Amino acid sequence: MKRHQMRSIAIILCLSTMIFANTGFAKEPLKKERSRSHIEIDPVNTGTYTGDAGKDNFIANCSPCHGDAGKGDGPLMDTLGEGVRPRNLSDANLLSARTDEFLFKTIKSGGAAVGLSEAMPSWKETFTDAEIKQIIQYVRNSICKCKYKK
Fold first, then answer.
1. Cβ distance 41 to 130 under 8 Å?
2. DSSP helix/strand/coil, 49
3. Which helix (H) or strand (E) holds 41?
4. Cα distance between residue 44 and residue 35, in whole Å
5. Centroid of chain to Cα 13
6. For residues 94 and 122, is the Cβ–Cβ distance under 8 A?
7. Cα–Cα distance between 118 and 147 in angstroms, integer?
């Protein structure tokens, strides 16, 4: 499926979720199905995932708010509530001050769990822990191009 088609589907699913959330007809977020053989662990850096699963899941589920480049400029950025903006994940100064554990908890449990906006949803029903780690690695390696600095 082409990237623009995936983005269109993600936008439709996000809007459907917003519209039908209280009716019980909400759609599940898009999740890129991958075989276990596609997920490769870098033998040098244990726990570092390679492959494009993190990118696929980011584009399908995170980019509607954060944008394809993670700049916080996705097509749903203006639907989150007054004064609420998605984080600019390309901001290396911001992301290098955040641990992978903090990012993991934010994605898994939602923004409110870490003192941020509740507009950032919990993704624990959508992604496995390994998939969340892949998304974090994708953000670190391809979007902010940064690592946590103590």
1. no
2. strand
3. strand 40-41
4. 22
5. 15
6. no
7. 25
Contact 145, 93 (CB under 8 A): no
Q: What pLDDT sits at residue 37?
A: 34
Scan for tokens 């916080």, then name that residue.
72
Q: What is the mean pLDDT of residues 118-137?
A: 96
Q: Is pLDDT of 74 > 80? A: yes
Q: Which residues contact 75 (CB under 8 A, 6 or more apart)?
A: 7, 11, 64
Q: Are 123 and 57 in contact (CB under 8 A)?
A: no
Structural domains in the chain plus CATH codes: 3-23+49-143 (1.10.760.10)
| N-terminal to C-terminal alpha carbon distance within the chain | 40
> How many other CB atoms sit within 10 Å of the CB of residue 6?
17
- The model carries a pTM of 0.69
Number of other CB atoms surrounding residue 128 within 10 Å: 12
Q: Give the mean model confidence (pLDDT) for residues 25-38.
A: 44
pLDDT at res. 9: 53
